[in-house]
Amino acid sequence: MSTAIQSEPRIETVTVTDEAIMAHLTDGRTISVPLAWSWRLSDASANQRAHWEIIAKGHGIHWPDVDEDISLDGMLRGVPAKRPRSVGLRQGKKTGEKVSAGEKVSGTFSPPHSPLQRSKASLGLK
After folding, report:
1. Average pLDDT per consecutive 10 residues, the chain (126 residues; last block may be shorter)
2. pLDDT for the residue 72
3. Could you please report the per-residue DSSP string of 2-35?
4. Measured distance CA(51)–CA(46) in Å, rounded
5. What is the pTM of this model?
6. What is the spatial distance between Cα 81 and Cα 75, in angstroms, rounded to a whole number?
7. Could you tell me the CA-to-CA distances from 34 to 23, 78, 120, 124 in Å, in that order?
8. For residues 58 and 8, what is the distance between their CA atoms, to the nearest angstrom?
9. Mind listing the domains of the chain with CATH numbers?
10. Which helix (H) or strand (E) holds 115?
11. CA 64, CA 81: separation in Å to the nearest integer?
12. What is residue 98's three-state secondary structure?
């Protein structure tokens, strides 16, 4: 009678190509997802993609140059990351107008008719 010791698979090494992110596991398997599933890595240079760290005791990968984390579980479940919308306010932009990539957005936002605005209006303040 033999006893097999089962352990959770862990990431041993990582390969990132122009098409895919591949996690090579300690049990010999390779898990692969399309590079397009990570918009941060898709936008990153080859050097940034090549600079990764294994985190969470082999359960995740971190790319410090682009602040991206991908878990082994996320790769297995197959859920791509959604690119956030670049919407914001900046001087000279209308409310809700899209901000171009690379533009800085600053300032604060308070919705119209907020309690603060209503109380200022009731006091005759701007």
Report:
1. 70 97 97 96 97 97 97 92 67 45 40 44 50
2. 95
3. --PPP----EEEEEE-SSEEEEEETTS-EEEEEG
4. 9
5. 0.63
6. 11
7. 12, 10, 52, 58
8. 10
9. 11-77 (3.30.2020.40), 86-126 (no CATH)
10. helix 115-122
11. 17
12. strand
